[in-house]
Design goal:
Elements: E1 6-7, H1 8-15, H2 19-27, E2 35-36, E3 42-44, H3 46-58, H4 65-79, H5 86-131
Antiparallel strand pairs: 1-3, 2-3
Helix pairs in contact: 4-5
């Protein structure tokens, strides 16, 4: 399914995360390299990169590592081969929807902060333009 394996440097470039950050997410169990090279280097797949992108997108929205782990667990189980009964599937979907709702609330807060920052920058620009000779 995943095909090509990548070393950590390529993963860091693709995700725009530092090597240290990726290793931290490994230590906390959020992502694990899918394989090791003969020389012992960690090897990652597209699935691993996708997990790191989920984490990268959650972090600025204020989600904790435990919340990231809970969401990834829910999506892993929904996407996995294990048969889920209807109640279990609905509980997992409800969990994903709760995270989607929380993300939407954070996005709205960020929009307000951005609008305020833009107003502030425009005020300073107008002031500096007025002062220009």
């Amino acid at each position: 399914m995943d095909g090509k394996h990548m070393q950590i440097g390529e993963v860091a470039a693709r995700t725009e995360l530092s090597l240290r950050t990726i290793r931290h997410y490994e230590e906390t169990g959020l992502v694990a390299p899918s394989a090791r090279s003969q020389g012992g280097f960690r090897l990652y797949t597209e699935t691993d990169v996708a997990r790191l992108m989920v984490i990268r997108r959650m972090k600025p929205l204020g989600f904790t590592l435990d919340q990231m782990r809970e969401l990834l667990d829910a999506t892993d189980r929904l996407d996995g081969d294990e048969r889920l009964d209807d109640a279990e599937r609905e509980e997992l979907l409800a969990r994903v929807r709760a995270y989607q709702h929380a993300a939407a609330e954070q996005v709205e807060k960020l929009r307000v902060q951005l609008a305020r920052a833009e107003d502030f920058e425009a005020t300073l620009r107008a002031r500096s333009d007025d002062a220009a000779p």
